[in-house]
Amino acid sequence: MRGSVIITGGAGGMGLACAQRMGRDHRVFIADMQAPRLQQAAAELAAQGIACDTAQCDITDRAAVEALVAQAVAAGPLVAVIHTAGLSPQMADPEAILRVNALGTVNITETCLAQAQSGFVLVNIASMAAHMIPGWLAPLKTYRLASSDPLRFLKKTAARCRLIPKDFYRRGMAYSLSKHFVIWYSRHMAGEFGARGARILSVSPGTFDTEMGRLEEKSGSMQLLEDAALKRPGRPEEIAALIAFCASDEASYLTGTDILCDGGAVAGREG
């Protein structure tokens, strides 16, 4: 075994695909909010010969995140954290989306930084939605409040979403901003991780054939494939392979950046 790996949101979708991939040569810790989903995922992994540990964890609760990381560290060297947990537009209201996707990422990142050693890597999952909003719309000054004054960050960012009249579009806006923040924050923190010999980066998936991806068909996600270079949704194992590479020693010079994996959907919109 090459050390331990934590995968948040590891009970399904991309997270479970990552556990299947990383579990080949790492001890895997999968975290999720729901115990039944964790038990089902652990059974599925066990059937594939992959042993894993499970942990219920609310990523908006800093103490819970710290306990999760401590559990993995106690079992052996923690070499990577793959942070896939999050909410999509169909799953919650704008403030909840911002709290989970943005502030949850801050909790994960700051907790990882506190124990990061040489060779450690954090891969945060963003979204192609972050690449589709105009740069002027992103409140970069507000982003800087996420660590120092999270309540003010939440209030100001949610207020920006309320400028949009319909709730359906507000939730989409909150999601796009939350994932744009994930990209910005991963870049912003690269220097601090680098000072410890560690890495941090983000990956932005497009439309994938997962439970969350199918849920977002109501938001028009499948329509984005009409202009995409590859006119199909991605398979979970495809994004898992990319994330596993990013978390591997083969990508040891890759940090402070975002990798867009969307089958050419954003390129199609721009072209």
UniProtKB/TrEMBL annotation:
Superkingdom in the source lineage: Bacteria
Any single GO BP term: fatty acid elongation
Domain Ketoreductase, first and last residues per copy: 3-139
GO molecular function: oxidoreductase activity, acting on the CH-OH group of donors, NAD or NADP as acceptor
Family: Belongs to the short-chain dehydrogenases/reductases (SDR) family.
Name of protein: SDR family oxidoreductase
Native source organism of the sequence: Mangrovimicrobium sediminis
